[in-house]
Amino acid sequence: MNPILKLIPIILAPFVIGMVLAGMEVTPKTNPMSEINPDHLDGAFTGGFGEQTCRSCHFDYDLNMEGGSLSIQGLDEPYKPGGEIPITVTVQSEQLEIGGFQLTARFEDGTQAGSFAWNGDRLMFTPDIGGNVQYIQHSEEGTKPTDEREVSWSFTWTAPETSDPVVFNVAANAGNHDDSSFGDWIYIEEMKVEGI
Length: 196
Description:
This protein is of the alpha+beta class. It is built from 2 helices and 9 strands, in the order ααβββββββββ. It has a single domain, classed as Immunoglobulin-like (Sandwich), CATH 2.60.40.680. The chain has helices at residues 3-23, 32-36; strands at residues 68-73, 84-93, 98-107, 115-117, 123-125, 136-138, 150-158, 166-175, 185-193.
């Protein structure tokens, strides 16, 4: 076979590939989590009991960056068994345009401790997580800032009937609202609360 004929496929290949690609619609890639479930997380991301954090997708920066913070108000004192305790979770950062969080309350063996309740449409339970642990988190409505550069979520925790120690794990995303996994600051916190 003529050696020049062998080169024709090699020479034509870039042109054929270019023609095929030119005919395809090219769209910018957005955050796959927002395309699949714009209003909730898929999975457990509190950072407690061996779980990942939001940083498993939003990996651009280290955890707990300076210039922002995560706080849990309402858990400063021992709980009364069966008592109702108002809790507020707040994430803030200098670049926050949108925010989200996920929180659990578990005994030291990893089982559910107490229960959560709230009013309004800013919160929900994370669906499709196996087991009996409640994962409370933001809803789509709950991602909007509640103040300049911060988002807060308030809910009630009904303590268990025992006085065993309870471990709270929370992870929060101070997002820049660019529909990508980049540029977001992730914060985590763990608190242990004793019963009376």
